[in-house]
Automatic annotation (TrEMBL):
Chain ranges of the VWFA domain: 96-247
GO cellular component terms, A-Z: transcription factor TFIIH core complex; transcription factor TFIIH holo complex
Organism: Pisolithus tinctorius Marx 270
Family matches, as Gene3D superfamilies: von Willebrand factor, type A domain, Zinc/RING finger domain, C3HC4 (zinc finger)
One Pfam family from the record: Ssl1
Any one biological process term the GO annotation gives: nucleotide-excision repair
C4-type zinc finger span: 326-343
Region (Disordered): 1-41
PROSITE patterns in alphabetical order: VWFA, ZINC_FINGER_C2H2_1
Keywords, in A-Z order: DNA damage, DNA repair, Metal-binding, Nucleus, Transcription, Transcription regulation, Zinc, Zinc-finger
Similarity field: Belongs to the GTF2H2 family.
UniProt xrefs under SMART domains: C1_4, VWA
Protein name, as recorded: General transcription and DNA repair factor IIH
C-alpha cells in the first residue's frame, strides 16, 4: 500500500473487526469471502475469548457471602494502580493540553451507548474536571474535527469552568462530515507555539473515524510535532490506524483502542497524571543532553476584591471589578494561572503551585506484610484510622501486592496501615501520616 498521503489505514483484517463483533445481525448480512471466514465465524473471536468477566471470577466464601470476594477484587484493582513507579521522577507540572475531539459522522455510531459522540463528550467533561484537579497549573484548549476542518471549540484556558462550558453545548458540537487529523493537529500546534520550553505540550485525540481527509502530507506535520516536542496521545474508538499509531509512537504519546465503555474511560484517565519527562523525547528536538533543571520565573498575583473600582482587564478588555494584578507590571488579568499579556510573566497562585508539588515527590509505596514475625512490635490497629486489623492467619503469601493480613507497612516509619488507608494516603493525602514523608 502506498503510504504517501492521507489514507494509510492498517486494519487487522479487511473489514472493521468491531462491526462484526458488536452487531451480529449486521454482520450476517455481509457477504462472506471463502471458507476460512465462515469457519472463523463459528469460533469465538480471540478478543472475546481472552476477556474474563469479572463476575465469573467471584467465589462465595463458606457462609455463602460475596463480601470477601468483592473486597478482594476491589483491593486488587486498587493495588495494581499503585504499582506505578514511585521513585522521584522528573515530571512536567506546567502542562498545556489540546483536546481534539472527532466530530465527524462516524461519531454517531451506536457501538458505545448511547452514541460514541455522547459518551466521548461525557467522558471528556469528567476528564477535564479530574485533569484540572490533578494539574492546577495546567491549561486545556479544545479543538474539534468536523467537515474536513479543524474548529476551535475552546480557547486555551486554565479555568476548568471555561473548558467545561465549551464542552457542554451538545448542539453546537453536532457531528458532521469527515475528520481531518492534519488540520486539527496544525491548529492545536498553532495554539501552543508560543509556549515556553519548560511547559509540556500535549495533544489528546479522541478518534472515532477510520479515515482522515488531509490537505497535505500528514507525515510532514508529524515531523514538525516531533521537532517542537509535542506529545500526541490518541484514543481510537473504532480500530487501530497506522498513522495514529505512528503519531503517538514518534512523539512519545500513548495509543489505545477502546474495547468497551469502561476501557475507554481507563485509557482516558491514564493520561491525567503528568507525563514523565524522558531523555529520548527531550533530546529529539534539540540534540542536547538531558538539560539540568533550570529555574523559572513566576509571579504571585494580588487578588482584587469584588468591591474594587472597575477597570479594564488586559486579556479581554472587559470592564470588571474582580481580577488579579500582575506583580511585575500591575496589569490586570481575569484568571490564574496564565501568562501576563503585557510582560509575559507567568502568573500562578501559590495554592495551585503547592497542589502540584506532590507529583514530584510521591509517597513511597507501602510494603505488603506477609507474616507477623514479631508480634510485640506490630500494632493491633491501623496507624491512621485506628481500626483493628482482622484476626487472620499469622502468615501467608503476598499475591499481586495484596497482603494476606491486610497490613501495609511504610518503609520509612514501619507503621502498619490498612488497605483503605494505604490507597487513601497514596491517592489523596500524598503524605505518610506516620512519618510525614
Ligand atoms: Zn480578561
Ligand atoms: Zn505583567
Ligand atoms: Zn486505616
Ligand atoms: Zn511513614
Amino acid at each position: 500500500m502506498d503510504v504517501d498521503s492521507d489514507s494509510d489505514i492498517s486494519l487487522f483484517g479487511d473489514e472493521d473487526p468491531r462491526a462484526k463483533g458488536k452487531g451480529k445481525g449486521k454482520a450476517s448480512e455481509r457477504p462472506r469471502k471463502g471458507k476460512a471466514k465462515r469457519k472463523a465465524k463459528e469460533q469465538a473471536y480471540t478478543w472475546e475469548a481472552s476477556y474474563t468477566r469479572s463476575w465469573d471470577t467471584v467465589q462465595e466464601d463458606e457462609t455463602g457471602s460475596l463480601q470477601g470476594s468483592v473486597e478482594d477484587l476491589m483491593a486488587r484493582g486498587r493495588r495494581r494502580r499503585l504499582l506505578a513507579p514511585a521513585s522521584a521522577i522528573r515530571r512536567t507540572i506546567i502542562r498545556h493540553l489540546v483536546l481534539i475531539l472527532d466530530l465527524s459522522n462516524s461519531m454517531m455510531d451506536r457501538d458505545f451507548r448511547p452514541t460514541r459522540f455522547d459518551l466521548a463528550l461525557r467522558y471528556a467533561r469528567e476528564f477535564v474536571a479530574e485533569w484540572f484537579d490533578q494539574n492546577p497549573l495546567g491549561q486545556i484548549g479544545v479543538v474539534g474535527m468536523r467537515s474536513g476542518l479543524g474548529e476551535r471549540v475552546g480557547e486555551m484556558s486554565g479555568n476548568p469552568q471555561d473548558v467545561l462550558r465549551s464542552l457542554s453545548d451538545r448542539a453546537k458540537l453536532e457531528p458532521a462530515g469527515e475528520p481531518s487529523l492534519q488540520n486539527a493537529i496544525e491548529m492545536a500546534r498553532g495554539n501552543m507555539s508560543h509556549l515556553p520550553t519548560q511547559s509540556s505540550r500535549e495533544i489528546l485525540i479522541i478518534y472515532g473515524s477510520l479515515t482522515t481527509c488531509d490537505p497535505g502530507n500528514i507525515h510532514e506535520t508529524l515531523e514538525v510535532c516531533v521537532k517542537s516536542r509535542i506529545r500526541i496521545s490518541i484514543i481510537a474508538l473504532a480500530a487501530e490506524m497506522k498513522i495514529c499509531r505512528e503519531l503517538s509512537d514518534k512523539t512519545g504519546g500513548k495509543f489505545g483502542v477502546a474495547m468497551n465503555e469502561g476501557h475507554f474511560k481507563d485509557l482516558l484517565f491514564e493520561l491525567v497524571p503528568p507525563p514523565v519527562q524522558q531523555a529520548t523525547i527531550r533530546n529529539a528536538g534539540s540534540g542536547s543532553g538531558n538539560p539540568p533543571a533550570d529555574l523559572m520565573m513566576m509571579g504571585f498575583p494580588t487578588r482584587l476584591p469584588d468591591t474594587s473600582t472597575p477597570s479594564l482587564c488586559a486579556c479581554h478588555s472587559d470592564m470588571k471589578s474582580e481580577g488579579f494584578l500582575c506583580p511585575r507590571c500591575m496589569a490586570k488579568v481575569c484568571d490564574v494561572p496564565t501568562d501576563c499579556d503585557i510582560c509575559g510573566l507567568m502568573i500562578v497562585s501559590s495554592p495551585h503551585l503547592a497542589r502540584s508539588y506532590h507529583h514530584l515527590f510521591p509517597v513511597k509505596p507501602y510494603e505488603a506484610v506477609a507474616s507477623l514475625d514479631d508480634t510485640s512490635q506490630s500494632a493491633s490497629a491501623c496507624h491512621a484510622c485506628a481500626r483493628p486489623f482482622p484476626a487472620a492467619p499469622s502468615s501467608g503469601v503476598v499475591t499481586e501486592g495484596i497482603s494476606p493480613l491486610g497490613r501495609y507497612r511504610c518503609p520509612d516509619c514501619h507503621h502498619d496501615f490498612c488497605t483503605e488507608c494505604d490507597v487513601f494516603v497514596h491517592d489523596v493525602v500524598h503524605c505518610c501520616p506516620g512519618c510525614g514523608k
